[in-house]
Amino acid sequence: MKKTIIALITSALFFSGGASAITVYSAEGTKVNLDGRASFELINRTDKRSDLIDRGSRVRIHAYQDIGSGFTALANVEIRFTKDGDIGNQIYTKRLYGGFQHKLGSLTFGKQALLADSIGYSNFTYELGKITMMPKDADKAVRLLTDWFYGFRFGADYVFGTSEKYDDSDRELANKNRAYELAMFYNNKFGEFNVKGAVAYSQQKAGTLAKDEYDKKAMSTSVQLGYGKGAVGFDWTKGKSIEGKKDFKFRVGNNKFEEINLFEVGAKYAVTDKNNVYAEYLWGTGEIQGQDDGKFKGWFLGADHQFNKRVVTYLEGGSFKTKRSGDTLEKEKRIALGLRVYF
Fold this sequence. Notes:
Blueprint lengths: L1 H15 L5 E6 L2 E16 L5 E4 L3 E11 L2 E10 L11 E11 L2 E9 L23 E10 L5 E8 L19 E12 L2 E14 L7 E14 L2 E11 L7 E2 L6 E2 L1 E12 L4 E13 L6 E15 L2 E14 L2 E16 L1
Antiparallel strand pairs: 1-2, 2-3, 2-4, 2-20, 4-5, 5-6, 6-7, 7-8, 8-9, 9-10, 10-11, 11-12, 12-13, 13-16, 14-15, 16-17, 17-18, 18-19, 19-20
């Protein structure tokens, strides 16, 4: 049974992208793991002064309890320390959920990442990457996720919307943010080649009143081919609202559109065992009925150095521009020097 619990923990950490955790308690079928990271960047961006920012420093607690018959109960908490401001300005709960695991899969409830958060195989950057238009986390979600079967994994998320049904004027409110996501993942090796892939779809309610309620729809596909010291990836994502509702933005920028198609290709190469270089190119179109399409282009370049498996530093930057009818709507250049210390 102990081996079963360890296997389930390893699978969960792999899917969540977690670093190796430290076991702080293990007795009578209960295991408590602790992990986290300190993550900071010196960053310079267009029209802003150079700054030092927190890039998601966190502490996570993972608890597992064997309940017999191959089932394990779990509870996870993630605490962060900075929210939209100076470093350490607010301690808050980023994740808080519980559920059950079995060798066939898991069922979890609470404030957690959604399936879309794991889609983005063309992204090799630390902080500049994933382009998916799908919701990536939710405060009130239920997730059903299978284990890996012959290289495939399947998942479904259900997100609860607004609990209030009527406003002070007794008008029925839209079930805002209620959503579902469906996804299929693939990960397999063929000789020296490693192939990863994902395809997913989401639908989310939006609007203020029930009579004005509408759906925001999004989908994503992602694929990566690895060989030896290198890997290449490709992503496509699409977001679409009804006419007159501008809900989607490009990976960088604040202009919103009714519909967006966005693409990304990326490549990474391990120069040495401790040094990687990577590059990505993005392009896409944004549509608003009755207007010319917005055109987006951007690129990322980066390199990292791993002192050991728990300490890494990186330098990455990029340039992005959105144009319409030949006119520039917005543009940005950025460069950042980052440090991550895992524990």
